[in-house]
Amino acid sequence: MTTSRSTPARATPARAGGTRARTPKEARPAYECDACGHQPPKWVGRCTECGEWGSVVESTISGPVVSGRVVSSRAPSEPARPIASISAAPARARATGVPELDRVLGGGLVPGAVVLLAGEPGVGKSTLLLDVAQHWAAGSGSPSLVVSGEESVSQVRLRAERMGTLHEQLYLAAESDLGAVLGHLDAVKPGLLVLDSVQTISMPGAEGVPGGVTQVRAVTAALVAVAKERGIATVLVGHVTKDGQVAGPRVLEHLVDVVLHFEGDKHSSLRMVRGVKNRFGAADEVGCFEMHEGGITSLADPSGLFLTRYGEPVPGTCVTVAMEGRRALVTEVQALIGATVAGSPRRTVSGLDSARLAMVLAVLQRRTERLTLHDREVFAATVGGIRVVEPAADLAVALAVASGGLNLAIDQHLVAIGEVGLTGEVRRVSAVPRRLAEAARLGFRMALVPTGCGPDSTGVNPTNMRVIEVTDVRSALQWAARVSAE
After folding, report:
1. Judging by DSSP bridges, how do beta strands 258-264 and 114-119 pair with one another?
2. ∠197-200-205 over CA atoms, to 5°?
3. What is the DSSP letter of 370?
4. Contact yes or no for 352/444 (Cβ under 8 A)
5. Could you give the 3-state DSSP secondary structure of residue 163?
6. Which of 204, 179, 181 is nearest to 194 (CA)?
């Protein structure tokens, strides 16, 4: 006789939505070094991270699981404090002695801040920073250290002699190894470090070649950590690509506190330092400099470089006011209308946006009378090497082209500000009161502005200046001709 054995039913865990319910991860034993916090997978007599003997102890940790590992809470290195009890003195900027650079930086260099200065080869980065290092050594009471990875100390010394920047507290070194750079910091204990350039420094143990993505990231991260720890104001020189962008990984710009672009045409003496990122001030400031045989000097009032003073009014010229960051610069626009040619006539620009010039020419051809441009060569340029690409210069470009095409000389004391639309209307632009104030300061007595930007709308009336609101390009031309005939 066969008897059947009953098998007890296996308990089935509760299911939610057709899947087995997971229990939260319970606390598990683990090992941790009480000297450095390293967590080895098993107990060892000596910590493999810091080398301490007998520092690995067993502990029970619990917390969120990330990539299969439990993340435990640790005692912070410094407790959180109320914001009102934190002193802002360590973040106060110290003047560098170069006024235009201080303007862009927001007052000067902050101890522990890291600045990245990028620019094309030969634009004057090393010259500017050598001048900054000399002023820092002479005025701050702490040494400054210039580390060159591209030039020898003799080459830098020759440049310093030419610029007159020799000082006993200014130290030079030529290194390409990060360990040697840190050794110089230990020996000199500078308040300012200039590293020219970050792409030439290599870090032992990091993969890749000097200047590669991995090396640049590792070197910059190490220098940022040292600068924060020791309170050293650090300026890193960076290379740029063919497109004018900072070479290297994008994270390089995130690691530093300030990013500056050094711009300028090699055929012009004008140089500009433009702020791109600034954790200590405005990020849209612009500093102006002038390069010469003796070095580089700040230009507190550069507007005169972008104007031509004529004895009598000349056809084909008009003055506008461009905004470079928060700075208003009075700029002259010139246009030359060439002979009639068959086929496609040339459109040549210098310092202007070629696309906006083409648009302005199309508007003038369609919206004005007695002006034929479709079969004539047009040359347009700015004076002094400045580049003006903002739409606020459209009206001045239109008046300069019309003045050259109609042989009409515009009054020398008139400025034109406004964006030109495809239907010929003159649109409003930003910072008109600041532009008019700068023009009035330089002696201009009349301004053509868009509707809604005059004194009645803004409440700002520059001294000894007549402000006329215009609605379109045709009315602007009529006002310009009427003023010139007076």
Report:
1. parallel
2. 130
3. S
4. no
5. helix
6. 181
DSSP 200: G
> At 374, is the secondary structure helix, strand, or coil?
coil
Which residue has better confidence, 308 or 69? 308
List, as own/partner pairs, every contact residues 260-263 make where C-beta atoms lie below 8 angstroms and the sequence separation is at least 24, other chains included: 260/104, 260/115, 260/116, 260/117, 260/118, 261/118, 261/119, 262/117, 262/118, 262/119, 262/120, 262/123, 262/124, 262/125, 262/128, 263/119, 263/123
Instruction: Give just the sign of the alpha carbon dihedral 459, 461, 466, 467.
Output: negative
- Residue written as token pair 């006539």: 345
Which of the 8 DSSP states describes residue 430?
S
Which tokens in the block code for residue 224? 């940022």
End-to-end CA distance of the chain: 132
H helices of 343-408, in order, are 354-367, 394-406
Q: How far apart are CA 294 and CA 163, in angstroms?
A: 5
| DSSP per position, 58-112 | EEEE---EETTEEPPP---SS----GGGS--GGG--B--S-HHHHHHHTSSBPTT
Rounded to the nearest 10 degrees, what angle do helices 354-367 and 473-485 cross at?
80
Cis peptide before 67 (omega within 30 of 0): no
| Tokens representing residue 74 in the block | 């640790």
Distance, CA of 178 to CA of 199 (rounded, Å): 11
**Do 481 and 409 contact (CB within 8 A), yes or no?**
no
In 3-state terms, what secondary structure has residue 333?
strand
pLDDT at 337: 94
For residue 118, what are the contacts with CB-CB under 8 A and spacing of at least 6? 237, 238, 239, 240, 246, 247, 259, 260, 261, 262
* Residues of the chain above pLDDT 90, percent: 56
Using alpha carbons, select from 126, 136, 135 the residue that is nearest to residue 191. Answer: 136
* 3-class DSSP assignment, residue 368: coil
What does DSSP assign to residue 199? G
* Residue whose C-alpha is closest to residue 91's, from 229, 231, 191, 194: 231
pLDDT at 462: 79
For residue 320 the two structure tokens come to 């506008």
Cα–Cα distance measured from residue 310 to residue 452, given in angstroms and rounded to the nearest whole number: 32
Residue whose C-alpha is closest to residue 472's, from 427, 417, 409, 405: 427
Find out whether 455 and 461 touch, Cβ atoms under 8 Å.
Answer: yes
Rounded distance, CA 436 to CA 320, Å?
10
Q: What is the mean pLDDT of residues 450-466?
A: 80
Task: State the Cα–Cα distance between residues 345 and 376, nearest whole angstrom.
Answer: 6
Give the tokens for residue 461.
Answer: 């009336």
- Report which DSSP code applies to 165: -
Mean pLDDT of the chain: 87
Report the candidate in 100, 97, 109 with the shortest Cα–Cα distance to residue 298. Answer: 100
Residues 40-60 have a mean pLDDT of 82
Residues 6+ apart with CB under 8 A from 162: 293, 294, 295
